[in-house]
């Protein structure tokens, strides 16, 4: 009995000792489920949580080739033999200033500068033709005498011209007629390849092969011409062709260096 009491006392002592030492959670309740963790607060979404994913704007497109200008008249070069007659009819002299409206590749302006030493201005709306005309002037060595401007011929100031040359279309000649009469000084000459000015009778008209060349002189009083109704067809022969107008045979001529036209 004494040994049994001693054994029980030792067992109780060990049990008490183990209870006094720190034990991991759940030591006494191994089968009890652990408590669930505390629930996190619900997130409130804002615009800051959604970054702007709009793609950046596309860079500007590289400039493409320049669009050609809208042309009222197709580019058809005046034959050089006709250019020669136009310049002869204009009776060019030192101090004259020639404006070619619709100058194309600049052949009329360049030829006048080369042969008569006068200043000239070519006006054309097509930048390709302007570039070509400037190159032809450079090759001909007359860049100090001639200027080429990209402009609408109806917007160009022609008041400094003493001679105006044209190779347009019948309806454009009629539209241009009031501008010529208002802006040019009396005594200025107007020379047109192939097309007349309606009922404004030319002072001269000559034939060059299949082409015609018309010559007018701006009168001191142009008021009557400005008021007259244009009843005649612009492309028809002038109503009062002078009887003495000669038929001019072709004149041989050497074109300025480089490709030319106008």
Write the layout of secondary structure elements.
Blueprint: H1 2-20, H2 80-90, E1 97-101, H3 107-116, E2 119-124, H4 127-140, E3 146-150, E4 163-166, H5 170-183, E5 189-193, E6 204-208, E7 211-217, H6 223-227
Parallel strand pairs: 1-2, 1-4, 2-3, 4-5
Antiparallel strand pairs: 5-7, 6-7
Helix pairs in contact: 2-3
How does this structure look, described?
With 262 residues, the chain is an alpha/beta fold. It has a domain at 80-227: Rossmann fold (3-Layer(aba) Sandwich). It contains six helices and seven strands. It has helices at 2-20, 80-90, 107-116, 127-140, 170-183, 223-227; strands at 97-101, 119-124, 146-150, 163-166, 189-193, 204-208, 211-217. It has a seven-stranded mixed sheet, with helices on one face. Helix 4 (127-140) links the parallel strand 2 and strand 3. Helix 2 packs across helix 3. The protein is elongated. The relative contact order is 0.15.
What is the compact description of this entry?
With 262 residues, the protein is an alpha/beta fold. Helices cover 28% and strands 14% of the residues. It has a domain at 80-227: Vaccinia Virus protein VP39 (Rossmann fold).
């Amino acid at each position: 009995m004494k040994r049994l009491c001693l054994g029980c006392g030792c067992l109780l002592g060990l049990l008490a000792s183990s209870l006094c030492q720190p034990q991991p959670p759940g030591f006494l309740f191994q089968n009890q489920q652990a408590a669930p963790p505390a629930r996190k607060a619900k997130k409130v979404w804002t615009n800051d949580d959604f970054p702007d994913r709009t793609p950046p704007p596309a860079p500007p497109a590289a400039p493409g080739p320049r669009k050609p200008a809208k042309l009222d008249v197709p580019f058809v070069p005046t034959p050089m033999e006709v250019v020669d007659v136009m310049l002869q009819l204009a009776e060019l002299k030192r101090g004259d200033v020639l404006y070619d409206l619709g100058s194309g590749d600049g052949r009329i302006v360049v030829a006048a500068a080369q042969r008569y030493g006068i200043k000239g201005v070519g006006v054309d709306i097509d930048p390709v033709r302007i570039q070509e005309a400037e190159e032809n002037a450079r090759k001909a060595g007359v860049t100090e005498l001639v200027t080429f401007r990209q402009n609408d011929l109806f917007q160009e100031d022609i008041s400094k011209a003493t001679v105006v040359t044209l190779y347009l279309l019948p309806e454009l000649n009629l539209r241009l007629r009031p501008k010529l009469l208002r802006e040019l000084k009396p005594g200025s000459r107007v020379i047109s390849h192939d097309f007349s000015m309606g009922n404004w009778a030319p002072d001269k008209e000559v034939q060059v092969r299949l082409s015609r060349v018309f010559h007018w002189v701006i009168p001191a009083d142009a008021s009557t011409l400005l008021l007259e109704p244009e009843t005649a067809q612009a492309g028809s022969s002038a109503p009062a062709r002078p009887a003495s107008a000669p038929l001019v045979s072709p004149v041989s001529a050497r074109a300025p260096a480089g490709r030319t036209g106008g």
